[in-house]
Design brief:
alpha/beta, D-Maltodextrin-Binding Protein, domain 2, 2 domains, 8-stranded mixed β-sheet
Length: 288
Amino acid sequence: MKKILVSLLALLSVTWWVTPSVAYREGHIMYSGMTVEEYNNFVPNLVSNDEYIWCNYKIDNPEYENIIGNFLEPEALIPFISLSEMLMALDAGKINIIELQQPVAEYFFKLKGNNEKYIPYVITKGVTYYLSMGFKENSKWFEPFNETIKSMTEDKTLLFLKAQYVMDAEENPKPVKFEKFPDAETVKIAVTGDMPPIDYVAADGTPAGFNTAMLAEIAKRLKINIEFVSINSGARAAALASGRADGVFWFWYDKSTKTPRDVPTGVTLTEPYYSWDTFYYVGKKLYK
């Protein structure tokens, strides 16, 4: 009888991994600029094409293993239009886990109190993620911005800004000063605040962090003025199409060919200016 019971438990353990029920809800931000309906149609295709199998993931905290669902269950993926909305849902128990990019997660755990309240359940690695600037096709600003980003990569300016505004980021990044150019043209850039400390907006609505510092340097080199337009992540493509913004920060990923994925028709991306290969899946601590 004892042998039968042990065998049954082993079978149930294997079955949980092979054909699990959805044990959790995973929140993530809609960087794609799609509507919720479009995104819900997009995710099953993403999953069916084995996109998630690229990741080599490990359970960072084994004691949480029994509450983590199957990463291949599209109905468990809940999209949000902003980081603040996603965090509120996590705190309210409406979702069990949130997806954070490496630089965001590292900054998140620097913030006061977060180490006592949250913990990384899973860390994935194996897919490269990039940040670029997006412009409408034939935008007169694409080439100047693209060439300036290239030059800032070559002369190590971006590396310096990364160290200052990401690696050594403070809990409340200070606003970046912009040089003013009288009678110069103004370029409107959309910011979301959903990727602190990279795309960061302070409580008073003032943009700060890495992207802002990079734009200040671009503006200085091109001798232009920058006007910030505050939007949510899902509205980036619409902001470009409507002319509300001339440029946006675009998050994309790639398996191996460095070919942008999830880029709407009519949007052109600059050379990437930031990249990483790790994601954190963060949840609330169950134990103290």
